[in-house]
Amino acid sequence: MKGAKVLFLASWVILLGLSGFIGLTSLGSLRVAYFSEQDSLTSSLTLEQVKGIGGDEAVNTIKTLRGRRVTAATWALAAAVLAFFVALFPYRRGERWAWWALLVGLGLSQILSALRYVIIGTSPGAGTAMTIVAVLLLALLAGVPRLFRQPDIDEIKVE
Questions:
Q1: How many structural domains comprise the chain?
Q2: What CA dihedral angle connects 146, 16, 19 and 114, to 10 degrees?
Q3: In a domain, 157, yes or no
Q4: pLDDT, tens digit, 9 for 90 and up, residues 62-118
């Protein structure tokens, strides 16, 4: 089935690109947390201005939130690297467990991330999470014809 081979090629290439995207955005988030004087929490204030308004406690709160951002970004980077290598090697070889690992590993984490809107009432980041889920599902569905097809009787090798 030539069509299934083309779909599968598209599938793992999209998965590699998605993993790369997640990795690069996590590195961007790390850069903001470590080196930026301003971030999305205080887009118009520097740490010195926050200190003038709220004192040292306000600055410590912002530093704590930056630390949480670092933790989230490093976990996202780890997931991206792992997904990249799973897509590049076992998934590309057609191992079914890799399909399930990518679906559950990336899909579940992003769905939980998108739930931020419903559970805590904040929307920044929820759209990105749902976009990742959509691209992931598209890529994995493209791989279904090859990974989950029944073998043709003519393809079975007798050794």
A1: 1
A2: -40
A3: no
A4: 888 889 999 999 999 999 999 999 999 999 999 999 999 999 999 999 999 999 999
Q: Pull the structure tokens for residue 143.
A: 């791989």
Is 59 inside any structural domain? no
Residue closest to 70 by CA, chosen among 39, 109, 26: 26
Q: 116 to each of 90, 110, 119, how far by Cα in Å?
A: 32, 10, 5
Q: What is each CA distance from 63 to 19, 88, 91, 151, in whole angstroms?
A: 29, 37, 40, 56
Position 25 pLDDT exceeds 80: yes
The answer to whether position 58 is within a domain reads no
Please give the helix or strand (H or E) that residue 48 lies within, else none.
Answer: helix 47-86
Residue 104 in any domain: the answer is: yes
Q: Which range marks the domain in which residue 84 is found? A: 2-29+72-147
Q: Measure the CA–CA gap between 56 and 53, rounded to whole angstroms.
A: 9
Helix axes 2-35, 47-86, angle to 10 degrees: 160
Q: By the 8 A CB rule, do 136 and 83 touch?
A: no
**Burial class of residue 50, CB neighbours in 10 A (0-12, 13-18, 19+):** middle
